[in-house]
Each structure stands twice: as C-alpha cells, then as structure tokens.
Amino acid sequence: MFGGTCKATLVGAVVAMCVLGPRMAISKDDLDRSDKEAVILFKQIISDERAYYKECVISDEWLAHPIYAYSVRNYIKYPIRGDVSPPHRTTMPKDIIGRGAGAEGLICSEKEQMERKDAALGASTYSGNSTFRDKQIVASTNTSRREFSYPIFDIDYRTAFVVRDNSRRIWIKTENNKYPSFGDGETAVFIYRKKHGRWKLIGHDEYASYH
C-alpha cells in the first residue's frame, strides 16, 4: 500500500517501519525515492501559499502525528483498519523542505523562534495606548509556527498524506515586564494527488483545534 523503503505491518494498526542508520550529512545522491518525491511535494506546498511563509516559520523537526484510518480509507481504496504512523527518517525538514527554492530560511528551531520573539519584545516599539490588566503595553509581536509530518505515499507515489500543525500567537510585553500571549491552532491532514507530474491538494481532514 505504501511506497518508499518502508514496509507497512498491520498489527491492530498499520505502523510504517523505516529506521535507517545514522548519517552525518545528507547529500542529493543519498535521497531515496520517497525523499525525492517529498522534496517535490513540499516545494509545491510552499509555492501554493508563498505569501504565508516567512523566515523562521517551519519547525526543524518532523511532526510525529498519525494519519487516522478513516482519512486513508477516504482517499485510497484499501481495507485499512488502524491508524498509520509517519516513517522514521534520517532526513530532516532542512534536507527535504530546505531543498525547495528559497525554503531554507523558513526553517528554524523552536528555541530560535523564541529568541526572535524575545528580541522583538525587547525593542519596546509599541506605539499604541492599549493596556493589559491596567498595565501599559510597551511591545508586541506575532509568531506563526508550522510543523509537518514526513509524507506517507501510496505504493504508486500518486497520493500523499501530510499532517500539519499550524499555530499562531500574539505576544505582548507590559510595563511591569510580564509576557502574556494569546493564540490558537489546529492540526489536520492534507491529502495530495499527483496529476501530470504535479502534486495537487485534493482534500483535508481536521483532527483538532486548540487555544
């Protein structure tokens, strides 16, 4: 059912097993078919929403979230009974997403994003007169974060499933050096189909939303 170097095993749930030995660096020649298709897929994903993707918005770690069985059954005619876990890979988002044109600067660690947030709040550039709990707001900034699972492909590499967690937060700094934040997010699987050599979004299932 699923492509690449992984083999699917059904024991109450389908779990993609793909554990490779450690490598210090991933060259273009080291990419297997799944990786090469993933590079093409994410390049299309970034291109479709290019205005959204700013510097340091994509996580440098893969999201380890399963694809629920009903999502698979809705798009692939296969009698699957359990959820499907993304395969374990030595290639990271920088190796896959970062290979797309202009995508490398979009990827960063959570620590780096928080350092950028702290620097923005430390600038004290807020010019409004708003208050929070009777304290003057002296700085504010917004952060967006997207985490992607490594794609799961069908055996013919014509259908791909990618789980995405998308979060947004507004951070403020008050005159007493408090840092409250407000935001929301959602987790969903996005399904793509390859037509005429190009990956196209054909549907999505929302799994969760949060504040």
Structural class: alpha+beta
Count the E strands.
11
Largest sheet: 6 strands, antiparallel
Helical region count?
A: 4
> What's the overall geometry?
elongated
Give the distance, in angstroms, between the N- and C-terminal Cα atoms. Answer: 36 Å
| Helix-strand topology string | EEHEHEHEHEEEEEE
Uncertain spans: 3-25
Helix content: 10-25%
Average pLDDT, all residues: 84
Strand content: 35-45%
Radius of gyration: 20 Å
Describe this structure in words.
Helices cover 19% and strands 36% of the residues. It is an alpha+beta fold and 211 residues long. Strands 6, 7, 8, 9, 10 and 11 form a 6-stranded antiparallel sheet that branches. A 3-stranded mixed sheet has the order 1-2-4, with no helix packed on it. A two-stranded parallel ribbon has the order 3-5. A hairpin with a 2-residue loop joins strand 6 and strand 7. The two termini are 36 Å apart.
Topology record:
Layout: E1 7-10, E2 14-17, H1 33-48, E3 58-59, H2 69-75, E4 84-85, H3 93-96, E5 107-108, H4 110-122, E6 131-132, E7 135-148, E8 152-153, E9 159-174, E10 181-195, E11 198-210
Parallel strand pairs: 2-4, 3-5
Antiparallel strand pairs: 1-2, 6-7, 7-9, 8-9, 9-10, 10-11
Features:
alpha+beta; 3-stranded mixed β-sheet; disordered N terminus; 4 helices; elongated; 211 residues
